[in-house]
Amino acid sequence: MAFFLEILIGGLMAGMLYSLVALGFVLIYKASGVFNFAQGAMVLFAALAMARFAECIPQMTPVTDPIAANVLAFILAGMVMFVVAWLIERLVLRHLVNQEGATLLMATLGIAYFLEGLGQSLFGNSIYKIDIGMPKDPIFMLDTVFPGGVLVNKEDIIAAAIAAALVALLSVFFQKTATGRALRAVADDHQAAQSIGIPLNRIWVIVWCVAGVVALVAGMIWGSKLGVQFSLTTVALRALPVVILGGLTSVPGAILGGLIIGVGEKVSEVYLGPFVGGGIEIWFAYVLALLFLLVRPQGLFGEKIIDRV
Q: How far apart are CA 129 and CA 196, in angstroms?
């Protein structure tokens, strides 16, 4: 039982990080109807910016405390992502209003490749480290309940707590603020939102900025765990099954979908992997997403689209 709990907790922790990346997809799709294939590049670009700022700040400023340097680097990287979001809306999206979905999709692919190339040109292509002080030593929990306790990684717990706090903050933002309500109005109907005076372009800038901050937090956490390298863009591919499972328009769906996939990957790899030679963790999420596309293409919480003719 203790071993199963270790697997379950590990899956839940990984699922929260998947949910964090998936939130970027959901936020942009809700507000603009664009499936943002550039989200993975945004995660990489944000992580590269923070890693390089954290490295340069102690060398170029009087700030030598690692915590203060990381906080300042996070703020500077957040400002960079705000600028990136503004430029994307100003130079790309503004000129593609009311275009076909395939056109917008190709635009986000172009943005993804551009950000990857720009990140490599500005920050280099080395593997960088983000050290935000998260402890990496495992701990034993519930040792009074199970003999030997349950082995849990402290870093995973803190990362999951950060992801959960950001999700809660975004939920409050969408539900309680005027800007959040405007974002939901735009998500429901672009033309109706414009007719009551909601500026569509400004809303798109805001939602891309929020997605940029989400990408920064995700890049910071994944960079701390794995190091900042160009393979971080593949993290977004792991989040694609999450949004398919939860629904492209649902924030709660992104969270639940991430938890389901995180747990499913770990459990299937441990209990089914020995019978099929391993590797289930690599393709499990995509097979599950394929099954959902066949049975319930809108996902668990997505809106079912009915065309009347």
A: 47
Q: Where are the alpha helices (DSSP H) in 227-250?
A: 233-246
Indicate whether 258 belongs to any domain: no
The answer to whether 38 and 115 have CB atoms below 8 angstroms apart is: yes
Q: Give the other-Cβ count within 10 Å of 175's Cβ.
A: 10
Nearest partner of 159 among 248, 86, 238, 258, judged by Cα: 258
CA torsion sign for 173, 174, 175, 181 is positive
The answer to whether residue 257 sits within a structural domain is no
Rg, Å, the chain Cα set: 20
Distance of alpha carbon 104 from alpha carbon 261, whole angstroms: 28
CB 241 within 8 Å of CB 288: yes
Q: Give the Cα separation of 194 and 45 in Å (integer).
A: 32
Q: What is the pTM of this model?
A: 0.83
Q: Do residues 188 and 181 lie in contact, with contact meaning Cβ atoms separated by under 8 Å?
A: no
Residue 297 lies in a domain: no
Q: Which residue has the tokens 């998500």?
A: 187
Residue spans of alpha helices (H) in the chain = 2-32, 39-60, 66-91, 101-123, 154-176, 178-188, 190-195, 200-226, 233-246, 251-271, 273-276, 280-295
CA 294 to CA 281: how far, in whole Å?
21
Residue 276 included in any domain: no
Nearest to 123 by CA among 157, 69, 88, 77: 77
Examine the pLDDT at 76 and tell me if it is beyond 70. Answer: yes
Q: How far apart are CA 80 and CA 214, in angstroms?
A: 13
pLDDT, tens digit, for every residue of 275-308? 776 678 778 888 888 888 888 887 777 666 555 5
Host domain of residue 164 = 2-230
Domain count, the chain: 1
Q: Which of 199, 247, 213, 219 shows the shortest CA–CA distance to 94?
A: 199
